[in-house]
Design brief:
The chain is 35% helix and 20% strand. The protein is α+β, with helices and mostly antiparallel strands and 207 residues long. Mean pLDDT is 88; it is low at 1-11 and 203-207.
Length: 207
């Protein structure tokens, strides 16, 4: 079995966060120029994430998976085995979706995903939705029913505000952009990966 029976306290320390995501391919000139220009414009008002911060699109967030693994008393070896099994399944099931471009929604390119975090709004095309469906299929086959999952709303978080967001910026975040700064229409992504703990060393709070 991939799970190990331990005390609740031991399991809680052993079970790490589990994510499925694509990181942004680096280098990528248009995106880097956009992020750098946005950072200069906003200054101390915001932390604008750079390419080194492992910008990414999350397909599966940790909390539903982690709760399920805890309820089944998985130990660390079991979690690692789960990660490998899911990665193998995705590699075999989705062999043609390695590096690929994703499209930013031209009608609503930016959206607030929390009161302080701003993201590119990604078009949920057939490829992205099919990949999420395969992840859910794996979870159903593994657990008999899917864990409690957040709806899949494709986005890439690009900044976190440190000061108050103005009313107009809340209604239309595009107004935050300086004149002459153009955002990319598409973004090149790396392959689909399963991560334990952190996504490419990006702090979990920015996931």
């Amino acid at each position: 079995m991939s799970s190990g029976r331990e005390t609740g306290e031991t399991s809680r320390h052993a079970v790490r966060d589990v994510y499925v995501a694509r990181t942004v391919k680096n280098p990528q000139d248009k995106l880097e120029r956009f992020q750098a220009g946005l950072s200069r414009h906003l200054g101390r008002r915001a932390v604008v994430f750079s390419m080194e911060d492992a910008l990414h699109l999350t397909y599966l967030e940790s909390y539903g998976i982690k709760s399920r693994l805890l309820s089944l008393s998985y130990d660390l070896a079991g979690v690692r085995s789960f990660k490998t099994e899911l990665q193998t399944y995705l590699s075999e099931t989705l062999p043609r979706t390695g590096k690929m471009p994703i499209q930013i929604d031209s009608d609503e390119p930016l959206k607030w995903i929390t009161t302080s975090k701003l993201a590119f709004n990604i078009v949920p095309d057939e490829t992205l939705l099919a990949e999420r469906d395969e992840i859910e299929e794996f979870l159903v086959n593994k657990f008999g029913e899917p864990p409690s999952l957040r709806p899949f709303t494709p986005h890439i978080t690009i900044l976190e505000m440190r000061s108050r967001v103005r009313e107009q910026e809340r209604k239309d975040p595009v107004t935050m952009l300086p004149r002459g700064l153009y955002m990319p229409q598409s973004i090149a992504m790396n392959g689909l990966e399963v991560y334990l703990g952190r996504i490419a060393d990006l702090p979990a709070r920015a996931a």
